Amino acid sequence: MRILSENRRRFDQERAHAFSVFKDSGDAPSLLNRLSAITDQAVMRQAAAQGLPQTLALVAVGGYGRSEMFPYSDLDILVLVPEHWSEEQRAPVGSFLTSLWDLGLTVGATERTVRECLEASSDITVATALLESRLIGGSSELYSLMKSEFLERLVPRDFFRDKMLEMHQRHARTGDSPYALEP
Predict the structure, then answer these.
(1) Separation CA 146–CA 121 (nearest Å)
(2) Which of 50, 140, 135 is nearest to 99 (CA)?
(3) Most CB within 10 Å of its CB: which of 19, 26, 92, 100?
């Protein structure tokens, strides 16, 4: 538990420093990139403290995947595990994800194999997340396999059509109001 509290203290200090630099510079893109990098480091320290094996891949998705970690944004992370992992091999993943809450982060996480990612990518939200993903740590081979197989199956015209439909549906839900804020 001591490691976790030290990691939290370090994470908080690094974030405070990033905000201090931002107050002086006003450079918002640099702040978002810096917060992403600080979060990457904290996530990897948590992974090491929890003894996660290097055979899985920790993948940033969403805004975090774009290295645009907003100050109060949730942490969107994909834990990519090898095919045919047993429940025993997967057990540390749950402890790791729980430990991320100890950093003060709101965690949006999923654990999938490459095959499960490809199956889920028929959903436009999942496809977008995979498209914007980046490796934080762990197996670069596993991440590269997932990314290359996903991109090989991606049909740009269909993706664009589905994104436009998603946007129109989202606007219809808010009554096309320019005043309705949505992430």
Answers:
(1) 11
(2) 50
(3) 100
Distance, CA of 101 to CA of 4 (rounded, Å): 10
Q: At what angle do helices 124-131 and 156-173 cross, to 10 degrees?
A: 120
54 is written with which tokens? 């290097």
The model's confidence at residue 5, banded by pLDDT at 50, 70 and 90, is confident
Token code pair at residue 112:
């999938």
Angle at 140 between CA 38 and CA 104, to 5 degrees: 30
Q: In what order do the strands lie in the sheet with 134-138?
A: 107-112, 75-80, 57-60, 134-138
Q: Using one digit for the tens of pLDDT, what is the confidence trace for 18-57?
A: 999 999 999 999 999 999 999 999 999 999 999 999 999 9
64's tokens: 């975090």
What is the Cα–Cα distance from 86 to 130, expressed in whole angstroms? 24
What DSSP line would sit under the chain, residue for residue? -HHHHHHHHHHHHHHHHHHHHHHHH--HHHHHHHHHHHHHHHHHHHHHHTT--TTSEEEE-HHHHTT---TT--EEEEEE--TT--HHHHHHHHHHHHHHHTTT--EEEEEE-HHHHHHHTTSHHHHHHHHT-EEEEE-HHHHHHHHHHHHHH--HHHHHHHHHHHHHHHHHHTTT-TT----
